Structure formats: structure tokens, C-alpha cells
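Handoff note, outgoing to incoming analyst
You'll be picking up this chain. Sequence as last confirmed:
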Amino acid sequence: MKYIQKLGSIVFILAILLTIVPLDNRAHAADDKWKEIEKRGELRVGLSADYAPMEFERTLNGKREYAGIDIELAKKIAKDHNLKLTIVNMQFDSLLGALKTGKIDMIISGMTPTPEREKEVDFSDSYMTVKQTVVIRKKDADKYQKLEDLTGKRIGAQKQTTQEELAQTEIKDADVQSLTRLPEVILSLKSNKIDGVVMDSAVADAYLSQNSDLMLSKVEFANSEKQTAVAVPKNSPELLGKVNDTISDVKDKKLIDQYAEKAAQAMKEDGSFFAKYGTFFITGLKNTIVISIMGVSFGAIFGALFALMKISSIKPLKWLASAYIEFLRGTPLLVQVFLVYFGTTAVLGLDISAFICGTIALVINCSAYIAEIIRAGINAVDKGQMEAARSLGLSYGQTMKTVIMPQAVKKILPALGNEFVTVIKESSIVSVIGVSEIMFNSQVVQGASFDPFTPLLIAAVLYFILTFMLSRLMNFFEGRLSVSD
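Most recent structure output, in case you need it:
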């Protein structure tokens, strides 16, 4: 009966959440988007800045900046209409969701219109034509001369891209292995996890210039040339018209060639690895520390509240706390991050930054686990302590404050320290929505440096340093508390 009541409370809460979704936030009127942008005076362009020479990040005079063909196009669109440009950098497979929920105003990320995508968003006129190629290891040059040679082979591609679709449709019986980011696909090729990578020629040339063990194969696709366009929200004719006006001007003046030359110049080596990318890792380290501390601190506050609710004798509070804790512990943090990031806009109509959304997701996730840690710590204190304190005339609140909690803290602290260590590592998940923590910045460096391994190694070392120092600190406090034993 108890479990039926818990299940009923969970269903009830979910039903309420579904019914409060405001319909007017789910879609914008035909001309609302452009008017909204114009009123805001800011154009938010979404992209995945790991796709040089189309878009990438670099350090110039000690400052980080975006560069690439798509970046220059975004700058021109903003300039032509007197708007401030804001770049929203996130993973490629999250861009369409961000556009549909209003987190960004358009996507300029080398995206190719497909029938599936055109059902969800509208596309501008094409601004660039790219040829699809297959990158292989040089030692396999004689093995892969034509398309038939790739039959049944392990082919890599970036997830939810035209290249993924091409590998699935044109390479017979291919074992297509799709990864979220292109540097990860390249690393898979270099480590012999896959046999080839489908990618467009401009990006392939950039990677080949930095990886001497890779080369272009002679494989030719039937539909090798693809058009890239700007994606805008569905039914936004005024915005689409503004974008097409700029693209028309770009074509008339043949600016894409100039943008490509500028991108090539920006990609050239201008210093050592750490001189160029050290600030990326420092920024990621600071943000990881901040988001982890906030996650555990606020998570502990809310966790304590739900722990007390769960051990309360008031059944509605007990059921609510149980439903909250079970739901959050039973769903992945990745799902919670996306729910908060997209839900705050689509459901609540709030425009909250990725950093705040990531922090909120970590807080609510931590609160559920910390609630169980605190509840277990309180229950571990001998029940006779409560009875003795109450018999001496102390109220329930006084007993918890002066008798139970001081003893429970000693039991809670080790588990709480482990939770803090876990949060530091799990904070890497918020990189999927563009939060600039350690993992996100290492991915940015992967795309900018064309080195898929070194940034990951540095990220691993930074995570280890943080968790090792925290573990030693927690051991110190545990030692001090054990003195009274």
C-alpha cells in the first residue's frame, strides 16, 4: 500500500507539471521572432565551435574569440541590421532543440537542409557548397580506393549530421558509429576504432594539415555536394527575409572566399600549445569549482529539508519528499540538465543562461542524493538519544539541533565528501548545453588545435587534482571530528 501511495504521488506531480505548460510559450507567431530580436537589439546565433574552418575558438592577444566562415557570416547579418551579436556555443545535436525552445534565434553551423530538418525549422538560401569526402589512415590508402571498398566497414560521423546520413545511405552495410563531436570521431580513427570518417572537404583539409598520419581517400559519393544554409524558427518570414538579404549580398560580393582566407589565417600556429590554450583550461577550472560548490552547498540545504520531510510523521510531506527523491535518483543527470535548460524557456518562458541552468540541474540532482545521506545519518543515531532528550523536556526541534544532528554530522561527513567528489566529475555533463567548464573547454581546444587527445589528458589531470585535494581535505576534517571518539 505504501508503494502504491508513493507511485500515485509521483504520477500526480507529473500530471500537474504537464498541465501547467503555457501554450503561448510553445511557438512564436509568424513575425514575433524578428520583432523580438529587433526589440532586444541582440542576435543570438547558435553553433558548435569545433568545426574549423567553419567555426572555432582561438586566443588572440590573451583574449578568447570566435573565428571561421560561419562566424564572419553571423557578424555580417548582425551588422547589416544594427544588432549586437551573441554566439551561443553548444554541441551540434543540441542546436535544433535550442532553436525550437527560443534559446537561440538562428543556427549558423555548416548545417545542410534535409527533409527531416525542414519539418522542424525553416532554412535560408544556401550560402556555401561543400563536398563530402572520406578521411582514412595513410596506411590504409590501398585498401579504400572506391565506395565498394567501404562495404561493411566501421564508418565514423558526427551525430545528427548530413555526413551521418550519407554514411548510412550510400555505404552498403556500413557499421556507422556516430559520436557527438568531430574531434572524438577523428580520435576514433587515429586509434583504429573505426576505418574511415565521412566529413566535408573544408573541415577535412583543416584536420589533415595537423594530422600527418591521415589522408583523403579516393572514394566518391553519388551525392557528394551539399548546400549549407542558416536555420531559423518555423514560420518566421520576416527574419528569413533579413537573413536572405545578407546572404544575397555575400554572394554578390563573393565574400565567402574572403571569409575562408581569414579563417585559414586564424588557424595558423602562433605560439606553444599552452600559450594558445592555457586560458581555456583556467576558465574551465574556475567554472567547475564554482558550479560544484554551488551544487553541493544549495543541494545540502534542499537535501536537509527533504530529509526532514521524509522522516516526518506528516504523511503528505513524507510522500512529497519520497516522490521528489525517487524521481531525481531514478533519472539521469543528463536528462535533468536538458529538462532544466529547455524547460525554463519552453514551459516557464524564462530566458536563463546555460550556466545558471546547469547549476540548477546540479543542485536539484545533489539535493536528492544528499537528502538520503542526511536521512541515513540521522537514522544511524541511536533512538534512545531522542527519547532521553525528550524526557528531559527538550522539544523536537531542540533535540534535533543540539543532540541528534551533532552526532549525525560525523556519520554524514564522509558520504557528503564523496558526493562532492562525484559532483566535480559529473559537472562535465553540463558541457552539453554550453557551460564553459573543464570538459567543455577541452572540447573547444580539441576543435581549435585539431589535437583530439592532449586536451582530454589535461582535463583528466585537472579533474584528478581537484578530487585528490578535496579527498585530502575531507580526511583532515574527519580526523578532527574523530578526536572526540
